[in-house]
């Protein structure tokens, strides 16, 4: 990762993200996302006027483990080229900060889209889900697992097409070699992760895809609970409600039942 000198032309007032007005050739605008160690801002290239998103990471707040995760995220994103995956355009680094310049998705998160508009009509859900599956299949072909598939990490571009984002929990894997790190959002996590078992990375992603499909067509989570213990129990049971409005055309009961199959010792789950 190449270092970028701190100067008025390159990075203004680095000590305060809120006071930053320019990073490299990009003028910063509104904040579009926040995390524990990072802020994401929309920005405009001063020459081309193209819009991007810049993830601004404060290295001084990161321990060695979290810093290694950032570098792993960058390494993986640099490898990826797919129409339904957010592109990483540029990485800038100073003594205290890291700036990830990525593709901007003006449609925002699928989660917010569902909050505003309610559950998707089945034809639209089918179109969107197909794009998500294509993106995840590409990841697995590249020997990468996402490990945090959820509505908040699925963005929409200007044409309402999917852009898979946030590779903070992603990792490279070797087929047949199980993973062990707990990752992702609990309502989307596979039962074997809740059980503390070593798990097959791609299969865990496929479970999360099943949850995403349910969220798209139902506007709610299939597995939920007021406490982590209750959520764990619900997920491990594998039981979820099929709403009355589901059509036979989508056959969601069959699809979800296969995506989220739970035959403990020898379960079968769709691959992609």
TrEMBL record:
Residues of the Protein kinase domain: 26-272
InterPro entries per the UniProt record, alphabetical: Kinase-like_dom_sf, Prot_kinase_dom, Protein_kinase_ATP_BS, Ser/Thr_kinase_AS
Pfam families hit by this protein: Pkinase
Record family assignment: Belongs to the protein kinase superfamily. CAMK Ser/Thr protein kinase family. SNF1 subfamily.
One MF annotation (Gene Ontology) recorded for this entry: metal ion binding
Enzyme class: transferase
Family matches, as SMART domains: S_TKc
Catalytic reaction annotation: L-threonyl-[protein] + ATP = O-phospho-L-threonyl-[protein] + ADP + H(+); L-seryl-[protein] + ATP = O-phospho-L-seryl-[protein] + ADP + H(+)
Listed Gene3D superfamilies: Transferase(Phosphotransferase) domain 1
Alphabetic keyword roster: ATP-binding, Kinase, Magnesium, Membrane, Metal-binding, Nucleotide-binding, Phosphoprotein, Serine/threonine-protein kinase, Transferase, Transmembrane, Transmembrane helix
Cofactors that this protein relies on: Mg(2+)
The UniProt record lists the keyword Phosphoprotein: yes
Organism: Dinoponera quadriceps
Protein name: non-specific serine/threonine protein kinase
Sequence intervals crossing the membrane: 206-223, 243-262
Chain positions recorded as ATP binding sites: 55
One of the GO biological process terms: intracellular signal transduction
